[in-house]
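call fold(seq) -> tokens
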Amino acid sequence: MVESIANILKYLQKKNIHLDRKEFSFQINSHPAFPSLLSIVSTLNVNYVCNFAVEIDNSEIDELPDDFMTFITVEGNKQELAFVEKTNKDFLINGKYKVSEKEFLSSWNNIVVLIDEHQSVLKKEAGGRYKFLLAGIFMLAVLIYFQISLHSFIFLFLSLCGFLLAVVSLRKVFGIESPVVDKVCSGTYTDCSLSEDNTTGFVSHFGNFSLVYFLSNIVSLLFLCNSGSEDVFFTIQKTLLIIILPVIGYSLFYQLFKIRKVCPLCIGIIIILLLQTSILLM
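ret:
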């Protein structure tokens, strides 16, 4: 049911409806009819999301809209409520993998859940109208207060960007919901779940290590700049290149040649690391 809830939220985000994951999950799990379809439909109704659950024959598949939800059979003959999108003659399941029409029809249970966003009370994602302005003011205040040179400021700014990407790469840990990130991370050859795969060793913790690395950069750079020891910081960073460059190389090798999937967020972090490296070598 955990995966089904995540798929429902993806579908809602596509319809520009944003619900709190924890609250929505609690409402479904505490419903008397859990884990039936009724618990899902009732919870959507409680949140003023207009929805319809109908049974469709295989012959009527072409009459369905371009996106919908249905139960499909997954590993272990278990059924999961999946978010389905039509793509020409294929079907994109949960934004991750495509199946042919024949494969799809053999795995679904003919029950379709549809959302009517026009009849729903749309819950827009918490706006960030002034986020960039506040971030700019904060960075300017940091620059003035700590008397940071432009060279150090650029390095600090890149560290902040890397820190944010690392946080987003661990979005399930922090409970972050973003339709933009879901779109970026979905597809046949893209995936942002490397950090959740416990079988991949060091690479599986790329987001964790990046989070610690960039946070350490931010704290140490501000501290050393305030004490007038910027040179010490950059000397340490040049030494760390002995570790950073091989990690970048291995991460790229792992994504491109081993699993043959690209982690867009990881690539973003790698680009930031390379930009910082170029600053260090200038």
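The chain has eleven helices and six strands.
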